[in-house]
Amino acid sequence: xxxxxxxxxxxxxxxxxxxxxxxxxxxxxxxxxxxxxxxxxxxxxxxxxxxxxxxxxxxxxxxxxxxxxxxxxxxxxxxxxxxxxxxxxxxxxxxxxxxxxxxxxxxxxxxxxxxxxxxxxxxxxxxxxxxxxxxxxxxxxxxxxxxxxxxxxxxxxxxxxxxxxxxxxxxxxxxxxxxxxxxxxxxxxxxxxxxxxxxxxxxxxxxxxxxxxxxxxxxxxxxxxxxxxxxxxxxxxxxxxxxxxxxxxxxxxxxxxxxxxxxxxxxxxxxxxxxxxxxxxxxxxxxxxxxxxxxxxxxxxxxxxxxxxxxxxxxxxxxxxxxxxxxxxxxxxxxxxxxxxxxxxxxxxxxxxxxxxxxxxxx
Length: 363
Ligand code: 9Z3
Description:
globular, Rossmann fold
């Protein structure tokens, strides 16, 4: 995607105030470091237990109906479109049923939202399964406190009307036109989640619908930061945990979230190409962990990234290969995003995957 030209923001904007302090990226010493081995993949029994004992979100039938319509719209045309499921943002783990408190993670949804734009730019339709209120394709340029949209406005002295500041006209025009085209051509279906339970139920639903409706034309691009531990329905407190109830401490007893990737690959969407992301903070662990995930879940590609460098460097790990891709500091300053490198490479792999499946079907 052609990056919108980046224009230096004036000093008086909110973007240059304390809001720019990256409180979302804590000091490395306090960041996660998962040296423990990869948990085992969930099998059929874990799947049954999970989906029978945890509650299905009530809005799921509505998602199913919209999704079917969207998939049909893109596949039942003379030149069927490929469809990518992009998952984006972090899942929460509620500590109470009437949720006051929950566990969250750092993910802002930048990877997912930016990648969705790149996929649209390359002719894909996108099911954007995202954490509600995290970054969205296109509007990400003007949302959240680090890029407050009010800073892009000005009052026109002759008409007295609020207008886009002349310094940002060109940049905003490019983004707006891309946004308008994507919306007018029905290229993105926005599907929200907040909790890890909502995410898992919706992922299973979308997988099934894409398998049936799109087969190998479907691509899974799993960039969401999914919680590793949660409070299952059998253990969750109904009401707000009282501050005095546990004496001087609150002890949380969390269960591991089942790893459904193997079920997705083997059973939910066996004809689709599956790409997962692997996040680490220790560089020395990244290749081994990514390879471990690939072997355990037997999908096609793991994109490894480090918390500290994820905006400019990623590692593509396949069965026989590990290849690093980066953008330079200068490119980053000029507004080039690493997703403009990642997405075309993933699309090439998807093309090969489709050819492979077609050849297999002809045999
Ligand atoms: C990623 O690794 C994403 O690239 C990020 C993007 C979450 C780092 P942001 O939203 O960050 O742009 O701020 N996603 C996968 C993270 C993850 O939890 N993967 C699981 C794991 O590493 C496997 S599914 O075990």
